[in-house]
């Protein structure tokens, strides 16, 4: 009897222990699961908050860009009706500078202000007249830069034109059409030739006729050699003929013209350097004397009755002399 009681009591104790362990284990697993779920939800919430913050920043940035674009479009629409806007567009296109007319106009204002501050506070000791002169120079600084960029790009294009024509002739003799030949040039030619012919191909693919696309190319690249080439292409499209032979002859002519231009440039180099020296030496000397002795040159800039007319006459004579020298050494080929 005593043994049975002990066995039953032991079984009850073991059963209670198993039940208690099961309850504790279940609660522990439940706590771990809840903890993991809580951590996941917290991480998910932080991720959602980060995404929301990022979207908010992107929305703010998009709104700012939209307002800037609206302002730029309004300025462009306001200036597009002006007569000078077309000229500016053509100049920027020839220089391949990615600026709108409004941005180019703003650049003039910023350049004027920057040159005025530089001349008034840094170079000429707060002389208002010299500050105005510096601002006047700053107004033309963007135009000078665009002009130099256009001239450099045109020179590179003309120097590449003989090789471009050779590539064009080889493509035509290989069985390519005119458009396919220009597409090959846009892939294989160096800059800026590749960019210009790529624009022609894209315009034709968008539905513009070949003649108009070639005229747009000639407007962007104002070259007599290119005009000769495009005229030959347009005539060949109307009357037919062997375009490869025609372009081969034109390429030889263009190559000889470039060689002759190089020889003339070497022969006239002394005259051009002399013109630059004579033109800029008085200006540099006046600035140097003003820097080392402002009182000596100050009367020339401050005296409106005598000094300013002398400055105007001097600058006008320097400009006339420079123009005459450039006219003499500029020999047409």
Ordered list of secondary-structure elements with their pairings:
Elements: H1 2-80, H2 83-95, H3 101-123, H4 128-173, H5 178-188, H6 193-205, H7 210-220, H8 224-239, H9 243-267, H10 269-292, H11 294-302, H12 307-329
Summarize the structure.
By secondary structure, the protein is an all-alpha fold. It has twelve helices and no strands.
Detailed description of the structure:
- The protein has helices spanning 2-80, 83-95, 101-123, 128-173, 178-188, 193-205, 210-220, 224-239, 243-267, 269-292, 294-302, 307-329.
- It has 333 residues and is mainly alpha-helical.
- Among the domains are: 155-260, Receptor-associated Protein (Up-down Bundle); 268-333.
- Helix 6 (193-205) runs antiparallel to helix 7.
- It is flat.
- Residues 9-18 and 20-30 have low confidence and may be disordered.
Structure characteristics:
mainly alpha, Receptor-associated Protein, 88% helix
- How many helices? The count is 12
* Range of strand content: under 5%
Shape by Cα distribution: flat
* Helix share, percent: over 70%
Helix and strand content put the structural class at mainly alpha
> What is the β-strand count?
0
Using only CA atoms, what is the Rg? 38 Å
């Amino acid at each position: 009897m005593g043994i049975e009681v002990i066995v039953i009591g032991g079984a009850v104790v073991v059963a209670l222990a198993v039940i208690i362990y099961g309850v504790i284990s279940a609660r522990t697993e439940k706590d771990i699961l809840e903890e993991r779920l809580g951590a996941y939800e917290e991480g998910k919430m932080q991720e959602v908050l980060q995404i929301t913050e990022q979207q908010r920043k992107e929305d703010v940035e998009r709104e700012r860009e939209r307002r800037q674009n609206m302002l730029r479009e309004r300025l462009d629409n306001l200036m597009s009706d002006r007569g000078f806007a077309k000229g500016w567009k053509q100049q920027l296109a020839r220089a391949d500078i990615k600026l709108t007319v409004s941005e180019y106009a703003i650049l003039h204002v910023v350049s004027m202000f920057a040159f005025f501050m530089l001349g008034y506070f840094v170079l000429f000791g707060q002389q208002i007249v010299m500050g105005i002169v510096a601002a006047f120079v700053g107004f033309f600084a963007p135009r000078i830069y665009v002009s130099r960029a256009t001239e450099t790009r045109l020179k590179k294009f003309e120097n590449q034109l003989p090789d471009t024509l050779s590539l064009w002739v080889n493509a035509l003799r290989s069985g390519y059409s005119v458009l396919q030949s220009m597409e090959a040039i846009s892939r294989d030619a160096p800059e800026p030739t590749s960019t210009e012919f790529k624009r022609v191909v894209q315009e034709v693919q968008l539905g513009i006729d070949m003649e108009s696309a070639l005229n747009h190319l000639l407007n962007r690249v104002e070259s007599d050699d290119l005009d000769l080439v495009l005229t030959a292409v347009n005539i060949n499209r109307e009357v037919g003929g062997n375009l490869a032979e025609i372009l081969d002859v034109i390429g030889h002519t263009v190559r000889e013209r470039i060689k002759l231009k190089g020889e003339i440039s070497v022969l006239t180099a002394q005259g051009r350097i002399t013109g630059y020296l004579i033109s800029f030496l008085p200006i540099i000397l006046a600035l140097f004397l003003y820097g080392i002795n402002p009182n000596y040159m100050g009367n020339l800039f401050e005296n409106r009755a005598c000094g300013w007319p002398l400055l105007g006459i001097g600058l006008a004579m320097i400009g006339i002399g420079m123009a005459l020298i450039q006219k003499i050494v500029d020999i047409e080929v």
